[in-house]
Design a protein that fits this description.
Helix content: 40-55%
Radius of gyration: 18 Å
Order of helices and strands: EHEHEHEHEHEHEHEHEHHHH
Organism: Terrabacter tumescens
Strand order of the largest sheet: 3-2-1-4-5-6-8
Structural class: alpha/beta
Oligomer: single chain
InterPro entries: Ergot_Alk_Oxidoreductase, NAD(P)-bd_dom_sf, NmrA-like
Distance between the termini: 29 Å
Bound molecules: NADP nicotinamide-adenine-dinucleotide phosphate
CATH topology of the domain at 3-140 and 167-194 and 256-271: Rossmann fold
Pfam families: NmrA
CATH architecture of the domain at 3-140 and 167-194 and 256-271: 3-Layer(aba) Sandwich
CATH class of the domain at 3-140 and 167-194 and 256-271: Alpha Beta
Number of strands: 9
Mean pLDDT: 97
Protein name: NmrA-like domain-containing protein
Largest sheet: 7 strands, parallel
């Protein structure tokens, strides 16, 4: 049986990738920051856990030992994303693993977003250790806004009319499982953008129709966001997100969905489908 080490397995993306792999019968070893997160990983099908510290590299060599492949994702807007990529890909290379998938982001070369540029640098570091690594570049997930839509109010600190081609996290996870378990994806980079161009205002309209109750789209001022959701963040994470909001305000985040459709072999999930009960 194939064993895949999933980094960040207890997080939002890691849980989705773990669930997609285990539904295909893959043995997932979940890399978690603390043993306290083990239950979260076991709940989505992981068979074992490895405690790793991505900031120091502690536990990584033990975690990759005996694995056949690694799925690497970095904690969101982490200041040392490039160092983390170096440590994880370095451990995989030392262990002789050739199958390695890095979870990047759509348009990593966009100079207006420092955390995107760190993803671009991390991609290069990964490929230095492992030239055959596969890179996935997902758009923003539908799931970022699902809870807000279900609660009847989507609030964002950028234009309600900026265009987005959001992607369903389940589709991203399905592609992750495919490239981790099937041949033919070595050394390739894939953009994963969703099938529709929708603004937040459009998303609220669709949500109202699908849910059969009003869903409003509200733009909050940046100061309000800084004093609210942004208040608990580090200055660096807050600045990264403020740069992202400014970029979203100017032009949203849009990509081409044809690669996702081809890799899935079916239509990508729409925003309306993301709102339907599982
Ligand atoms: N959200 C989107 O729309 C989107 C789109 C494209 C790409 N991405 C990228 O996807 C990646 C994952 O995002 P996410 O929202 O799934 O992140 P997340 O939920 O925050 O998950 C990150 C995981 O990493 C773990 N972690 C944090 N620091 C660690 C450390 N020092 N050592 C070991 N583990 C550590 C966290 O552990 P705990 O569970 O203990 O906190 C968490 O389980 C990010 O790089 C993001 O840029 C996101």
């Amino acid at each position: 049986m194939t064993t895949v080490l999933v980094i960040g397995a207890a997080g939002k993306t890691g849980r989705a990738v773990t669930a997609a792999l285990t539904s295909r019968g893959v043995d997932v070893r979940a890399a978690v920051r603390s043993a306290r997160r083990a239950e979260t990983a076991y709940a989505v099908g992981a068979r074992s856990i490895s405690v790793v510290d991505l900031e120091t590299g502690s536990g990584l060599d033990e975690a990759v030992a005996g694995a056949d492949a690694v799925y690497h994702l970095a904690p969101n807007v982490h200041r040392d994303e490039v160092g983390i990529a170096d440590r994880v890909a370095g451990a995989a290379a030392r262990a002789g693993l050739s199958r390695f998938v890095f979870h990047s982001v759509l348009h990593p070369d966009d100079p207006s977003m420092p955390h995107h540029l760190r993803k671009a640098a991390a991609e290069k570091v990964v490929r230095t250790h492992l030239p055959g690594a596969t890179v996935l570049r997902p758009a923003a997930y539908h799931q970022n806004l699902v809870d807000a839509a279900l609660a009847g109010r989507i609030t964002v600190p950028y234009s309600l009319d900026s265009p987005f081609t959001n992607v369903d996290l389940a589709d991203v996870a399905e592609v992750a499982a495919t490239v981790l378990t099937r041949p033919g994806h070595e050394g390739v980079t894939y953009d994963l953008a969703g099938p529709e161009v929708l603004s937040v205002r459009d998303q609220a309209h669709v949500a109202s129709d699908v849910l059969g109750r009003p869903v409003e789209a509200v733009r909050v001022e940046i100061d309000e966001w800084v004093a609210g959701p942004g208040a608990s963040l580090t200055a660096q994470a807050r600045d990264d997100l403020l740069a992202m909001f400014a970029s979203y305000d100017r032009g949203g985040l849009v990509g081409d969905s044809s690669t996702l459709r081809r890799l899935l072999g079916h239509e990508p999930r729409t925003w309306a489908q993301a709102l339907e009960p599982a």
